[in-house]
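Subject: two folds for Thursday's group meeting

Dear M.,

Sorry for the delay on this. The cluster queue was jammed most of the week, so I only got both jobs back this morning. I'm pasting them in the order they finished. Each block is the input sequence followed by the predicted structure tokens. Could you check whether the formatting survives your parser before we put anything on slides? The first protein is the one we discussed after the seminar.
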Amino acid sequence: MKWPPGAIQFADRARIHVFLASSDLHLEYKLKISRSRRSTWPRNRCNWPVPWSTDVEFSPEDATRSDRDFLVEMVQVAVQAGATTINMPDTVGYSTPQDYGRMFAEVRERIPAIDQQGVILSSHCHDDLGLAVANSLAAIQSGARQVECTINGIGERAGNAALEEIAGSTLRPRRRVRRLHRHLA
């Protein structure tokens, strides 16, 4: 394949989104590799697209079921390699709002470079337990500045967080309490 791909070449805001499994379940059963082999991969994957885009989003797939220390290590490596957005997905719709929000807060606290470098934290939630919107709002309250969601929550399995519900939750007067700014793109 010739690079840069056409979609990047003509994009007004070119972003490359890189995914790497982070939970032991995904590492062992999906990729059949060990943590030690995987922990350095974000550096290579986040450096790879830089010639075509300096806007690189990194997602440790299955973040909510990942060992927290390993998740922090992967995110730290990605930030050091130049990732501008870190998306921490609830890949299987497994988390609760309290746990999901705590994950965002802990990653921000343990990796000061996220705030220092203006790295955007992003949420991507599946609705298997019916908590995708609540989890997304918990992520926002814990520092996420981007939410990946869908119209009417349409998505694989039980769906994703619903755009209209998240947008509705951030309308005035609630917005004053949370100090949110909406930008739908």
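Second protein, same layout:
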Amino acid sequence: MLIVALGLIHLLEASEELEEATYLGLLFLANFGGAAVAATRTQILDDNHDLQPAHAETDTAIERGWQ
């Protein structure tokens, strides 16, 4: 939730920064975009409770005697 708040703050401040220094305003917009992607990706991964470590399948195969 904190990353969303940070992204929104940068989005709100971007218009002022675009007037003063275009590159800085663009960086603020990029920060908002990155925060939105990170928050969305984090939420998607959090919803996937069935994720297992990569070695879990190998460990199961070894336990069953499949080599």
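Two things I noticed about the second structure. The helical segments are 2-20, 22-47, 55-63. Residues 7 and 31 are 6 Å apart (CA to CA).

Cheers,
T.
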